[in-house]
Design goal:
alpha/beta, 2 domains, 6-stranded parallel beta sheet, 14% strand, globular, binds nicotinamide-adenine-dinucleotide
Length: 364
């Protein structure tokens, strides 16, 4: 792998290789872009098949965070850590403290958080070595489980999608199909039902389905039928890559708006949705509620402030749809453009001399 060629392709700033013999730490911290502020992104622990796979994953995920933060209006850049190892066998206090010291050595250029394979307890261990970590135990004044805020953001994004397509954000009587009734999907179901929507639900866990049927009067569908359900809005809240060559021709929803990460199997599937006239809410924009919430910790967590920032996903989605409509481009491409434009505009703000006081840091 030509590492600098890869870094040059998307203009990465920095890659840090972290090794610690005593704890067995082998980790990669990738910082993509800090134009808007410090790079925030979770710490993933995974049994990568090779070192190259780990580096490629860190780079890919870090860049994704740049776009996500920029589109969400946050003053944060994009970064990510990956630890090479098995989260079931290879975790130890020493490993996370060793990583914490590396993160601290970056002086706040990178802030970590929970991700696939890591937990709040792991973040607490990192916190022993550095303040540059979010998502620690609520007893330390952190923001706690982000799922409720993610669900709120998706709900507001669904309202915005309805406003754009139907001219009203009133969801009363709208049929919404939810795939996955986990931490986010179940809360989303509650909000949608509260707004008068009729729910169709599916989960591989029958207990969750039964709960939703009893609590929200939802209609249960077998998991294999939910994506092709006759409905106004489909909310994928389970797995990635659900929008692909096989599923897109079968979709019967007019709007796709859910929390799942990486819903498009490939970029071109966003183009296919556009061609079919289906309004797709780009996943990294509509599901940013959790990130917005955790990022509020950087200002000293305030739940009401975090909530009102999450609510702004409504306006962000409407602006994004407007841009897509005016330019005639698919919504997932409009999202990338919107994020890049914000970064480019702020990058070009004139470097006026600021006098001889403490330098102003953009973002925070
Ligand atoms: P979760 O694990 O709590 O819930 C996922 C649910 O999907 C589970 O109930 C599971 O049984 C169900 N499921 C799995 N396979 C299924 C299938 N084939 N058909 C139907 N249901 C199926 O996860 P979550 O935290 O609710 O997150 C849901 C999605 O949203 C994930 O893709 C996640 O990456 C994404 N996301 C979550 C957050 C957050 O704050 N939790 C933030 C951003 C994105």
């Amino acid at each position: 792998m030509e590492l600098f060629t890869r870094m040059a392709q998307f203009d990465y700033e920095q890659v840090v290789f972290c090794y610690d013999d005593a704890s067995g730490l082998r980790a990669v911290i990738a910082i993509h872009d800090t134009t808007l502020g410090p790079a925030l992104g979770g710490c993933r622990m995974w049994t990568y098949a090779s070192e190259e796979d780990a580096v490629v994953d860190a780079l890919r995920l870090a860049r994704g965070m740049t776009y996500k933060a920029a589109a969400a209006g946050l003053n944060l850049g994009g970064g990510k850590t990956v630890i090479m190892g098995d989260p079931r066998k290879d975790k130890s206090e020493a490993l996370f403290r060793a990583l914490g010291r590396y993160i601290h050595s970056l002086g706040g250029r990178y802030i970590t958080a929970e991700d696939v394979g890591t937990t709040v307890q792991d973040m607490d261990l990192i916190h022993l070595e550095t303040p540059y970590v979010c998502g620690i135990s609520p007893s330390y004044g952190s923001s706690g489980n982000p799922s409720g805020m993610t669900a709120l953001g998706v709900f507001r994004g669904i309202q915005a999608s309805a406003k754009y397509l139907y001219g009203t954000d009133d969801l009363a009587g709208r049929r919404v199909a939810i795939q996955g009734l986990g931490s986010v999907g179940y809360e989303l179901a509650r909000l949608l039902r509260g707004a008068g929507a009729d729910l169709l639900v599916a989960d591989v866990n029958p207990l969750q389905v039964e709960r939703a049927v009893n609590e929200f009067g939802a209609q249960a569908l077998p998991p294999q039928d939910i994506l092709s359900a006759e409905c106004d809005i489909l909310a994928p809240c389970a797995l990635g890559a659900v929008l692909n060559d096989e599923t897109i021709p079968r979709l019967r929803a007019q709007i796709i708006a859910g929390s799942a990460n990486n819903q498009l199997a490939e970029e071109r599937h966003g183009d296919m949705l556009h061609e079919r006239g289906i309004l797709y809410a780009p996943d990294y924009v509509i599901n940013a509620g959790g990130l917005i919430n955790v990022a509020d910790e950087l200002e000293g967590y305030h739940p009401d402030r975090a909530r009102s920032k999450v609510e702004r996903i409504y306006d962000i989605m409407l602006n994004l749809y407007k841009l897509s409509g005016e330019r005639g481009i698919p919504t997932h491409r409009a999202a990338d453009e919107m994020a890049m434009k914000r970064i480019e505009t702020l990058r070009q703000v004139r470097s006026t001399h600021l006098g001889h006081h403490e330098p102003v840091r953009r973002g925070r």
